[in-house]
Q: What sequence folds into this?
């Protein structure tokens, strides 16, 4: 057995994984009920089974039909961009809008090809001023501006 | 004439100063994001959804709609001038539009794109005004079985019209349906797939999913590509198309408008599909097909009219059935729900000002776009010189603010990042996110209607095939699947999507 279409192979595997998870979880923890009175587990169990089945077909095809390779993953932009968003969310309440925005700008900038400190500082400043004017002053969103300790 | 009366009401709503202002903001924002590659209407509307909570419903919808059709205008500008499609639906405009610009005919190309878009906008506004009321009347008679079958048909149609592998698209729909079920089950109150995380009890926010799958994944993919894009723009001189240009393009504009209006209504349709279909048709019917790819004005006029018409008529299923035909419409439904309005056929009768105001605003917005766009071309192009390393952190800031403000909780940012990862993986595996998003929003609705239909029929599943309307949708769905599975058609479909590059 040789994988002829890696993209389909991994996609199929992903769908089988998701499908099995939902089907098994739904049928073991939630009531299935009958088709007349469906329990909370019925629809997800059926869909999960269907998804796993579709995944199997995709898997099967990947062994017979020729297809493209999976393009390589670039972990640096992936981690930096996702990390910047998470950091922003979790820094907002303790540190306030200004520092959270600065953190987002610098972390996400590390995901790019070139990083210049000066540009980062200017960009962060512009975005902080803009967010404060538009979202805090203009739209009255209840964001803290500074760390709670200084509040 | 009831329709005139209704349109009059609509225009009264649309030209009130506040609504005019939001319409202007919408179309300007739309043009802006249309010009900028890497920011689409989906991410923008998703970003602005939380903000619309503070607006009145009419103004909110007028603004969001303006973003969608405004993006079609903006996308054409960059396609023609710098050969970069600002919007996916303008990809085909690049082919001939850019060649025209290289021959020093950027002015006429821009002008014909604007004129075609405006004409298409006017016609499709009328199409909505005439087609929507009777459709809504039919929809009022729909029971749960009809709704369920309609959704099945809609989802199947959406996958057929999506790029790439059909079976992967269907799998993505099912995955979306499943993810949409996360949260409290309305019938039993049971918490499903929440893993004891209290934030998941209300389910995953649609906005969060859309921003992760489309916005974040797109930024990460853009960052992979090395090198800044080149921008070189010659001064745009003599804007007016020649007599010959007009003679060659008016039929293309008409055809494009027709194609766009028809395809926009289909589930899964909208601006993107319309522009590709129009380009292929123009190439087929043209007397000089050899000019296509070398600056044929029909290759600009047809698709640009089509994408605007498609963008607007895709509102019809959303407004009359409460069912989204593409991710942008799903966001519109989200906007309605934020305002406490249940989308569906009753919107037209219960909120006539909203319904007709929105329709009239589309015409007003199109007028604004034509008047504003040509003089502002220079400014939009300047924006393109902004390097991506400034652009993407700014986009991230807006996305994070938008998501965070949904419930003032960092958890939403985390979920967005999770879906960003999923979106990136899906992009690598060539699994389209759009069908998943449709499934995601329809998941709970489908389950609800399925349960009710089965309850009403006492557990008899044949009900979907014995009720005439429901049977029609089901048969149409099956027919679509069968047709698309036929080897000949499948090859054609793959060819059609291959041309999109």
A:
């Amino acid at each position: 057995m040789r994988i002829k279409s890696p993209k389909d192979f991994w996609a199929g595997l992903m769908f089988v994984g998701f499908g099995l998870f939902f089907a098994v979880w739904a049928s073991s923890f939630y009531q299935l009920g009958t088709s007349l009175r469906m329990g909370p587990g019925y629809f997800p169990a059926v869909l999960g089974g269907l998804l796993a089945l579709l995944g199997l077909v995709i898997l099967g095809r990947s062994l017979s039909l020729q297809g493209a390779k999976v393009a390589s993953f670039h972990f640096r932009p992936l981690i930096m961009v996702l990390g910047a968003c998470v950091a922003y969310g979790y820094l907002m309440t303790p540190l306030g809008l200004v520092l959270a925005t600065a953190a987002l700008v610098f972390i996400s900038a590390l995901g790019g090809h070139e990083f210049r400190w000066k540009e980062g500082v200017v960009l962060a400043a512009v975005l902080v001023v803009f967010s404060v004017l538009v979202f805090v002053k203009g739209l009255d969103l209840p964001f803290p501006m500074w760390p709670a300790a200084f509040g | 004439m009831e329709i005139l009366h209704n349109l009059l009401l609509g225009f009264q709503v649309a030209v009130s100063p506040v609504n005019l202002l939001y319409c202007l903001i919408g179309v300007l924002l739309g043009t802006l994001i249309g010009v900028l590659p890497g920011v689409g209407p989906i991410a923008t509307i998703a970003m602005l959804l939380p903000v619309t909570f503070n607006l009145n419903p009419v103004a909110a919808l007028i603004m969001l709609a303006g973003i969608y059709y405004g993006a079609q205008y903006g996308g054409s500008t960059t396609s023609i001038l710098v050969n970069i499609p600002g919007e996916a639906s303008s990809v085909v405009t690049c082919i001939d539009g850019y060649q025209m610009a290289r021959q020093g005919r950027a002015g006429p190309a821009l002008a014909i794109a604007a004129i075609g878009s405006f004409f298409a906008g006017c016609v499709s506004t009328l199409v909505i005004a005439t087609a929507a009321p009777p459709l809504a009347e039919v929809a009022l008679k729909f029971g749960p079985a009809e709704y369920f079958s309609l959704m099945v048909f809609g989802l199947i149609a959406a996958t057929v019209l999506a790029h790439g592998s059909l079976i992967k698209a269907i799998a993505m729909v099912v995955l979306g349906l499943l993810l949409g079920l996360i949260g409290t089950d309305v019938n039993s109150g049971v918490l499903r797939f929440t893993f004891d995380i209290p934030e998941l009890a209300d389910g995953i926010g649609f906005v969060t999913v859309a921003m992760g799958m489309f916005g974040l994944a797109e930024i990460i993919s853009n960052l992979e590509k090395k090198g800044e894009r080149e921008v070189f723009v010659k001064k745009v001189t003599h804007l007016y198309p020649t007599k010959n240009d007009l003679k060659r393009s008016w039929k293309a504009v008409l055809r494009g408008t027709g194609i766009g209006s028809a395809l926009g209504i289909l589930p899964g349709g909208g601006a993107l599909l319309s522009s590709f279909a129009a380009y292929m048709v123009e190439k087929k019917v043209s007397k000089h097909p050899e000019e296509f790819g070398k600056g044929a004005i029909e290759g600009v006029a047809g698709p640009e009219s089509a994408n605007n018409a498609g963008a607007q008529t895709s509102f019809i299923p959303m407004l009359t059935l409460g069912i989204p035909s593409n991710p942008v419409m799903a966001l519109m439904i989200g906007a309605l729900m934020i305002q406490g309005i249940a989308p569906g056929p009753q919107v037209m009768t219960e909120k006539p000002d909203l319904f007709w105001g929105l329709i009239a605003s589309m015409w007003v917005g199109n007028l604004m776009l034509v008047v504003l766009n040509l003089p502002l071309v220079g400014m939009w192009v300047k924006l393109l010189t902004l390097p991506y390393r400034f652009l993407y952190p700014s986009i991230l800031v807006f996305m994070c603010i938008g998501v965070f403000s949904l419930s003032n909780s960092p958890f939403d940012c985390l979920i967005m990042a999770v879906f960003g990862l999923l979106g990136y993986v899906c992009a690598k595996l060539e699994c389209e996110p759009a069908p998943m998003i449709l499934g995601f929003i329809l998941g709970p609705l489908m389950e609800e209607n399925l349960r009710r239909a089965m309850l009403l029929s006492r557990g008899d599943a044949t009900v979907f095939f014995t009720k005439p309307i429901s049977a029609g949708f089901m048969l149409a769905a099956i027919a679509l699947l069968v047709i698309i599975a036929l080897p000949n058609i499948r090859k054609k479909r793959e060819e059609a999507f291959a041309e999109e590059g």
